[in-house]
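Supplementary notes for students who missed Thursday's class. We covered one full example, reproduced here. Read the sequence, then the structure, then the short commentary at the end.
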Amino acid sequence: MQITLDHSAHEALFDLPDNDGAYSSAQLGYLSQLGARRPCVVLAFPPKAAGTFLRSAAALATGGEVLRLCYAQGSRDAQLYLPTLVAYYLGGFCQGPMVAHLHMQAFPPNTAMLEVLGIRPVIMVRSIADMLASYWDMLEISTAPNQGVNCTIPPDFRALDNARKADFLVDIVAPWYAGYYGTWLEYQSRNPDRVHMLDYADFMRQPAESLRGLLEHSGLPKSLAECQKAIDATWQERHGLRFNKGMEGRGSHYFAFPHLERISRLLSYYPATLPWRAELTGV
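Structure (token representation):
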């Protein structure tokens, strides 16, 4: 595949923003115009929050294609990759809209790039303990169990006893989840129109309505019937999409009360999580 980059595109790719992601005025103008050319869906979900499932359903509903928006995602804490975005907006990669799913926190460079391109992300709120339980299940059967969320999984993880596994997930992995909600909920509170928040319980009860809402937010509105059709087709492929149990409250069967208190304590450092604290911790 060949993608033609004009002089302005080359300038945009090599004109680096400052450390906080602020762009020069020339780059702001170019990227803003570029982002208006094509709509897209960006699901900035934490791991084990039905992101892969909804990503696939969104692609079906819109006739789009799934693209990876980071350079490499082996460590799973994604940073947006501008060359992919510039190439997409110039007409590359796919004829239909881009659909992306990445495990990304709302750090200033990420949100600055989303804003300048006019991308309105979608996030998911789910119990951290439930997601860690699902992550635990994945590590037990994964063919690449060494890849964690911004961490390395111990090579002997599967040989550890359950208490030790629970400690590792809460001590090492849970802080990433706390940071994810700390950054996104704070950003959403300042920019409520830019971020569409999904609730996992609502998604499980009404998945087609959740899909309809996120597509409308992304500038790709579809009818509820079209969304239901996409959900039904994706549901048939759910096991290949790493959709696990989809049950609420599973975390209490994997983690002891002190573990849940530890998750709550991590979230306490982020005031923006307070309205969602009970749902995020299960305490």
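Commentary. DSSP finds twelve helices and five strands in the chain. The CA atoms of residues 130 and 251 lie 4 Å apart. If anything here is unclear, bring it to office hours.
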